[in-house]
Amino acid sequence: MLLTGGSSGIGAELLKALVARRCRVIVWSRRPPTIVSDLVEHEAVDLADTVALDAALDQLTANHPDLSVIINNSGTGEQGRFLTTDPKELDERADTQIAVNLTAPIHIANRLFKPLAEKPSAMIVNNTSGLAVAPTANNPIYCATKAGLRSFTLSMRYQAESHAPNLKIVEILLPVVATPMTTQYKTRKASVEKATQRIVKGLEKGEDEIWVGAAAVLRGVSAIAPGVARWVVKKLAK
Ligand SMILES: NC(=O)c1ccc[n+]([C@@H]2O[C@H](COP(=O)([O-])OP(=O)(O)OC[C@H]3O[C@@H](n4cnc5c(N)ncnc54)[C@H](OP(=O)(O)O)[C@@H]3O)[C@@H](O)[C@H]2O)c1
């Protein structure tokens, strides 16, 4: 199994849960994961660097032809305030977020969808966000990357349903979770342990979309009244 972003937050917690279930996990992140286990292999990969990602994919396909599960969990979020941030700085933040949150899972799928489709059973899991459904004011690029990844995941699921029935495409939609990514946020946060337990339960139950905690409420509201869902997220995130 390949897990991106196993060095921190949700990925680190997920890695613990996977190792406890005796899964072999290849972790891609810049920093190594803290967990020490002979089931875990770490490759230092910077997903913002498409050349490095391409080389890592070459190695992965050559060395692990048995790979059947991919969890795209790496993500980065930076604010984008147009009136108070230098445009060049905004460009840099945007390029990094688009590369890590959107381009990397797309390149991974472009390379691995076909080999995974040929396995008797395989899975691609993308960690998007409740913000893919309703954006906030201050994180325009982050929200746009997650909305883009949500759309991409859905298209990928349609292709798998019609042409690769053994390949399951899963999306995780989280609320605000207490991880290093959200330390500056003052809003209510779900615990990383509880959020991860819900993710694992969803994976074990075979859910296509794993809506965690308050994100599940957002799902209900947005199904009935999308405008209300957007208004609530906009106000709560202020
Ligand atoms: N926390 C939340 O409230 C929340 C809500 C919704 C969705 N999510 C999503 O959940 C996922 C995990 O987030 P988190 O909250 O656990 O954040 P986190 O604690 O900051 O962890 C982010 C992970 O992504 C990896 N990553 C970041 N930039 C990378 C890069 N250039 N190359 C490779 N890996 C990179 C980091 O590894 P290195 O730094 O070692 O490279 C780290 O392992 C993200 O996709 C995030 O968007 C989080």
UniProtKB/TrEMBL annotation:
<keyword id="KW-0560">Oxidoreductase</keyword>
<dbReference type="GO" id="GO:0016491">
    <property type="term" value="F:oxidoreductase activity"/>
</dbReference>
<dbReference type="InterPro" id="IPR036291">
    <property type="entry name" value="NAD(P)-bd_dom_sf"/>
</dbReference>
<dbReference type="InterPro" id="IPR002347">
    <property type="entry name" value="SDR_fam"/>
</dbReference>
<dbReference type="GO" id="GO:0016020">
    <property type="term" value="C:membrane"/>
</dbReference>
<comment type="similarity">
    <text>Belongs to the short-chain dehydrogenases/reductases (SDR) family.</text>
</comment>
<protein>
    <submittedName>
        <fullName>Short-chain dehydrogenase/reductase SDR</fullName>
    </submittedName>
</protein>
<dbReference type="Pfam" id="PF00106">
    <property type="entry name" value="adh_short"/>
</dbReference>
<dbReference type="InterPro" id="IPR020904">
    <property type="entry name" value="Sc_DH/Rdtase_CS"/>
</dbReference>
